C-alpha cells in the first residue's frame, strides 16, 4: 500500500521530497499545462509515495485547509531529517523530542500541507 | 512508512476496516470518552495503517470536507474487495474497471471519508 498525495504544485512537490526526504523519482506522467498526473517516489528502503496535481475533484491540503492523514516515517536520525525538511520549507508542528513510549520524533507540515510524523527509536 | 488516518469515530472505523478490508487490529490505545488515541491495523501481508479519533487540531475528512490523500491498495481481487467495502458502507467514486495501463481497479470512499484506490494487475 502507498499513499497518493494530492498537491497544489506537483513539480515543486517532487523537488521538495527529493531535497528534503532524499526521495528518488520513479515514474512521472505529465498532462496538460505540465500538471503531474502521476509520479512515484521512493523514500529510503523501498518506501513509496505517489503524488498528483490537484484537480478533477481531488483537492490539495491547501484547498481543503488541512489533511486528515498523517504520514508516519521511521528514520535513523529524526533531528537531521527535521532540519533538512525545515531548510527545504517545511513548518514544525510538534518539535522533535523524546517520548515516553521509546521514540524520539515530532511532526512537520511540508510546504504543500501534507503532514509528516518522523520518529526514530530510542536505544 | 504508514499513514495515520484521522477519523470521526475511531471504534467504528476499526470495525469497518476489519470487516471490509480484512484488517487485523494490533495496538489499541484508548483515551477519555473512549476516543481512540492510536490504533494499528495490519491489512494483508504486513501492510499497516494507524488511526486516531479527530481532535487536538487533527480534523477528520468529514470535518474538512474531503481528503488530499488517496490510499492505494494492490489486491488480488479488486471486484471482491470493492463489493465487501460497499457492503460495509463504502461509496463508489470510480467504478472498478479495466484500465489501459494493465490493471483493473477503482476508487471508493469509506464511511469516514478516506479514499481508497484498489487495483489488481491484469494478466
Describe this structure in words.
The structure is a homodimer of 123-residue chains. Chain A has 123 residues and is of the alpha/beta class. Chain A has one domain: 2,3-Dihydroxybiphenyl 1,2-Dioxygenase, domain 1, CATH 3.10.180. Chain A is built from three helices and eight strands, in the order βαβββαβαβββ. Chain A has a four-stranded mixed beta sheet with strand order 1-4-3-2, covered by helices on one side. In chain A, strands 5-8-7-6 form a four-stranded mixed beta sheet, with helices on one face. In chain A, a hairpin with a 5-residue loop joins β2 and β3. The radius of gyration of chain A is 14 Å and the shape is globular. Chain A starts with a strand and ends with a strand. The model of chain A has no long low-confidence stretch (mean pLDDT 95). Chains A and B meet through β1, β4, α2 and β5 of A and β1, β4, α2 and β5 of B. β1 of chain A pairs antiparallel with β5 of chain B, so a sheet runs across the interface.
Q: Quickly count the helices of chain A.
A: 3
The tally of beta strands of chain A, per DSSP, is 8
| Name of the top-level CATH class of chain A | Alpha Beta
The percent of residues in helical segments of chain A reads: 10-25%
Summarize the biggest pleated sheet of chain A. 4 strands, mixed
CATH architecture of chain A: Roll
Strand content of chain A: over 45%
Sheet/helix structural class of chain A: alpha/beta
Radius of gyration of chain A: 14 Å
Largest Cβ-defined interface: A-B, 32 and 32 residues
| Large-scale geometry of chain A | globular
**Side-by-side strand order of the widest sheet of chain A:** 1-4-3-2
Mean pLDDT value of chain A: 95
The span between the termini of chain A is 29 Å
Helix-strand topology string of chain A: EHEEEHEHEEE
CATH topology category name of chain A: 2,3-Dihydroxybiphenyl 1,2-Dioxygenase, domain 1
Whole-number tally of structural domains of chain A? 1
Amino acid at each position: 500500500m502507498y499513499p497518493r498525495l494530492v498537491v497544489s504544485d506537483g513539480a515543486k512537490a517532487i523537488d521538495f521530497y527529493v531535497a528534503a526526504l532524499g526521495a528518488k523519482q520513479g515514474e512521472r506522467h505529465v498532462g496538460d499545462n505540465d500538471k503531474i498526473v502521476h509520479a512515484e517516489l521512493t523514500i529510503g528502503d523501498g518506501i513509496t509515495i505517489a503524488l498528483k496535481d490537484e484537480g478533477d475533484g481531488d483537492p490539495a491540503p491547501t484547498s481543503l485547509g488541512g489533511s486528515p492523514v498523517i504520514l508516519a516515517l521511521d528514520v535513523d536520525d529524526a533531528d537531521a531529517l527535521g532540519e533538512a525538511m525545515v531548510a527545504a520549507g517545511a513548518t514544525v508542528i510538534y518539535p522533535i523530542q523524546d517520548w515516553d513510549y521509546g521514540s524520539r520524533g515530532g511532526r512537520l507540515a511540508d510546504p504543500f500541507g501534507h503532514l509528516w510524523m518522523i520518529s526514530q527509536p530510542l536505544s
